[in-house]
Amino acid sequence: MFLPIFFIISFLFSSTNADDFCVGDLNGPVGPAGYSCKKTATGDDFSFSGLRTAGNTTNLVKAAITPAFSTQFPGVNGLGLSMARLDLDVDGVIPMHTHPRASELILVMHGTLLAGFMSSDNKVYSKSLNKGDIMVFPQGLLHFQINTGKTQSLAFVSFNSADPGIQIFHLSMFANDLPTDVIAKATFLDNAQIKKLKGVLGGTG
Amino acid sequence: MFLPIFFIISFLFSSTNADDFCVGDLNGPVGPAGYSCKKTATGDDFSFSGLRTAGNTTNLVKAAITPAFSTQFPGVNGLGLSMARLDLDVDGVIPMHTHPRASELILVMHGTLLAGFMSSDNKVYSKSLNKGDIMVFPQGLLHFQINTGKTQSLAFVSFNSADPGIQIFHLSMFANDLPTDVIAKATFLDNAQIKKLKGVLGGTG
Amino acid sequence: MFLPIFFIISFLFSSTNADDFCVGDLNGPVGPAGYSCKKTATGDDFSFSGLRTAGNTTNLVKAAITPAFSTQFPGVNGLGLSMARLDLDVDGVIPMHTHPRASELILVMHGTLLAGFMSSDNKVYSKSLNKGDIMVFPQGLLHFQINTGKTQSLAFVSFNSADPGIQIFHLSMFANDLPTDVIAKATFLDNAQIKKLKGVLGGTG
Amino acid sequence: MFLPIFFIISFLFSSTNADDFCVGDLNGPVGPAGYSCKKTATGDDFSFSGLRTAGNTTNLVKAAITPAFSTQFPGVNGLGLSMARLDLDVDGVIPMHTHPRASELILVMHGTLLAGFMSSDNKVYSKSLNKGDIMVFPQGLLHFQINTGKTQSLAFVSFNSADPGIQIFHLSMFANDLPTDVIAKATFLDNAQIKKLKGVLGGTG
Amino acid sequence: MFLPIFFIISFLFSSTNADDFCVGDLNGPVGPAGYSCKKTATGDDFSFSGLRTAGNTTNLVKAAITPAFSTQFPGVNGLGLSMARLDLDVDGVIPMHTHPRASELILVMHGTLLAGFMSSDNKVYSKSLNKGDIMVFPQGLLHFQINTGKTQSLAFVSFNSADPGIQIFHLSMFANDLPTDVIAKATFLDNAQIKKLKGVLGGTG
Amino acid sequence: MFLPIFFIISFLFSSTNADDFCVGDLNGPVGPAGYSCKKTATGDDFSFSGLRTAGNTTNLVKAAITPAFSTQFPGVNGLGLSMARLDLDVDGVIPMHTHPRASELILVMHGTLLAGFMSSDNKVYSKSLNKGDIMVFPQGLLHFQINTGKTQSLAFVSFNSADPGIQIFHLSMFANDLPTDVIAKATFLDNAQIKKLKGVLGGTG
């Protein structure tokens, strides 16, 4: 007796699993809206355990960013949101950066962070954040987070894009072959400062 | 003499027919924005006769939904709208459901329908609709239509998505293997009620 | 005992009725996204009976367009869809026009219509439509509908905008003060033709 | 010497602070895109401490949802994202619900949750989540979270809308005046079941 | 010493170059959002020299449109903007046309242009533009540009779509096989006028 | 005789001029989608002469940006595009900056510019541009333009937002009260360098 009721809707969903989601096929063609859709999906495609463990903070910034974007977590492909985990040792810093395609919400899990962003009219909006606090960084603006407490700090950040991008200022400037004189003209920094940081960060030119 | 005027614009359109539309290629790759585009199209690709005839209403709900979404009518792929036909016998009902990715407009062609939706603050917005009436159901909200008249009823619904989706509550709950105790906890329904409906609708667990 | 469960969500919805919809306040400020929201709403705000009756077809085109856009039906404001009713007498025509901000789906209720659109590369996509047929007109493209049958025809059109706009070619050209020589240069039409139509349609210049 | 460089850009930003953000003015007009913008903003507008403390879980579901949507946290107005805090006692449950205008990412802070969603074709995608795990719920689909562990559980959820909405199934059905016979027809539930839940949840009709 | 800092972000970007852009692969699958992405890109992909030189104005309209849309300039694919160059001899005209998927900004480089558009309520908004002037044409509306000066004129137009489309009225009507009687009914033009222009522009029917 | 034809459409447009455009009312409420709409508009509202003349380049960067965003040119409000004029003396530079809400197309009118952007993976995409060349800068990425020729240079830039924003790195860092030690931690720059630039650019802290 229950077959007829199935009939009325069953052919709605016969030809594609892309109706409600589009788990990314990292080997298929990529387009402006993201990865192609995998043909089948299970519950495992929609969960991700890669943020369970802290990133390696044994580095210059004493901090680590662990992303769960569509490339790491294909389940969010096409769904317009993603996350990342931030680990900061004492004195650690997530350096000055932007996300070119998303706004961000930070949630502090433990520790104390000084977080801030600059607006287009060069004003500073900053706040000291503690456990349970959240803060929003409007789309595309320069922002930073610094561990100003006496313990390690853990935070999670959410984005309204499955592929928000992350552009870290000092790496964009000093970790490639952008010529020193171009950087000097475009940033007002001294040549000596630029060359010093190119040395530290592996840049040339 | 007319050739030069062609020349000024002809190369605008030489390499793709995807300029103005993207008739879905059901066999090509699928992405978050929909199907890939067929390489050529004719007038037939943009019209659809599948809504001419009534769906089979010999079923538990005495009603039928006949969709013209991008899977059935690939001409709407990428254009952001679609339709469906609703046939309701006397006492027929389109059960409580949502469209996860679209708002809906219903147009009653004949008969009398009681239609309604519930908002996020649990209010009911309902209306008795007659021939020629339209009603809007805001995106993603639970809604229903019931034939409260003494004749068959016919209605057409429009969506602002080529792939709006349709999630029917009792099928989502009782026509799969979602465990009875999970349903009971998440819906407040009694176990006996759940098991009875799983029996009717083919669910297990 | 039921009060606590209300508590957990009640404050979610205390301060605005704009959560799920935004019924247009035609007297409030208007912005790029549409009208301001009315402060309260009832079921009546979401239904509309203005499409029940045929428009007046005693005119030059033997046809009438009756819109249910956000201005006529404020319930669709902000929801991204709307409708209109088309009545065509024998030999009636919905003249060559575009909708600058929406794609359109036509549904033929009775009679026979020849409908078509032209693409950017000047191809014609046309189809003779009968009762129950639907056809899509991609966003912004010139299209028309002509009653080619021997009876009156009725159709309903859906749009994926609450405010799709409608620009009818001959009225845009000949029913205002656009100078005849400008029209002649920009359309290749003869001055005599232009002046004749300005006379019929009330244009000057 | 530094004045000239200011001159070249200073007039860019003279007339509005809405360039980069639009902190909601809860007393101004509301439109389809959200609240009007406050005229001035400080760092405090962009952070929120309302998620620091657990919601009150002394209720039927042994759980609490504490939102930080644009109504509670006007700093996210217009920025397209928001959060909420979920507290679940042992055996607590966030009941079956949808967000009509957003996809969701859940992040488990402690405890064990069984989470799942149903797709339009009635399949179940569920997963047992532990500390540090995330899971995505595609836009508009029914989903639930149940504390299946032996300790309290805490989770945070992110949305890609500043006003995602939340529609809880049993409250939409049983906590208002939707008539029992309508519910029965539209959900397949028995009248006795409906009346029992209306009694528990405060509904009438 | 600089290796650790690379480590913290290097795996963000390891699997795709589609993060920040999606240079169109004209030979790959096309979808509703545009071309597939090329696998690699260089600086050359983001610049275009095809607008350096004037189009051929030896034609009926004494004007030429040279587009830099995603088909000609694949670097803009997926980025939501494009340009075109307009050359107009003395008495030249860019004929009455629409862009179905974009608003337009014109910038006059030299000469004098009369430019205008018609709104949905048939009003004319026109302006005489000189060197350095800009004018906006709202999405989808009929507009035109005429060289009313005594010298050649050059202008550049920008669109907020990588594939705005261009529909030129007289070509859509008279340069294809749309039957004369259909055109006559749908435009109010006389049969003689239609046939004359079909002759000039290569149309049949 | 022409009155009837007016009748069929005249009531479409009776109550608002916001149908096709929304010229910004700089004194009305502002929302996330832009300014409120002026009640009436003329051709003058849609054109702008403020880009006719060069900006004042007597400053540290030997360059000037003259914007035509919705604040300066309210005709583009809600239409999703805008422009700006760039004047660069010999050795002038538009410093390293981002547009948080838009992609950009540059068009070089005269002179020679070295232009470039950095992607999220720290690669440099640069190009020497001459008269008539265009180049695209993907949304939100750091980019710069330098006059590398022996004459003044003039360029125009288009954006796919009416309010793209502009964030200039050295002003965001050094022209406000962001503390020196915060800048040092977040950018790797030396304190001496920071203090020197704060002195030049008027910053404190």
Structural class of chain A: alpha+beta
CATH topology of the largest domain in chain A: Jelly Rolls
Q: What is the chain-wise order of helices and strands of chain A?
A: HEEEEEEEEEEEEEHHH
C-alpha-based Rg of chain A, rounded = 21 Å
Largest interface (C-beta under 8 Å) = A-D, 56 and 57 residues
CATH homology group of the largest domain in chain A: Jelly Rolls
Shape of chain A: globular
Strand order across the largest sheet of chain A? 4-5-12-7-10
Biggest sheet statistics of chain A = 5 strands, antiparallel
Kindly list the characteristics that best describe this protein.
homohexamer; 205 residues; alpha+beta; Jelly Rolls; 2 domains; five-stranded antiparallel sheet; 4 helices; disulfide bond (chains A, B, C, D, E, F)
Quick rundown:
Chains A, B, C, D, E, F: InterPro entries: Cupin_1 (IPR006045), Germin (IPR001929), Germin_Mn-BS (IPR019780), RmlC-like_jellyroll (IPR014710), RmlC_Cupin_sf (IPR011051). Six copies of one chain form a homohexamer. Chain A is an alpha+beta fold and 205 residues long.
How would you describe the overall organization of this protein?
The structure is a homohexamer of 205-residue chains. Chain A is α+β, with helices and mostly antiparallel strands and 205 residues long. Chain A has 2 domains: 119 residues, Jelly Rolls; 31 residues, no CATH class. Chain A is 16% helix and 34% strand. The first copy, chain A, is built from 4 helices and 13 strands. In chain A, the strands form 3 sheets. A 5-stranded antiparallel beta sheet of chain A has the order 4-5-12-7-10, with no helix packed on it. In chain A, a hairpin with a 5-residue loop joins strand 8 and strand 9. The termini of chain A are far apart. The N terminus of chain A is likely disordered. Chains E and F meet through strand 3, strand 7, strand 9, strand 10 and strand 12 of E and strand 3, strand 7, strand 9, strand 10 and strand 12 of F. Strand 3 of chain B pairs antiparallel with strand 10 of chain C.
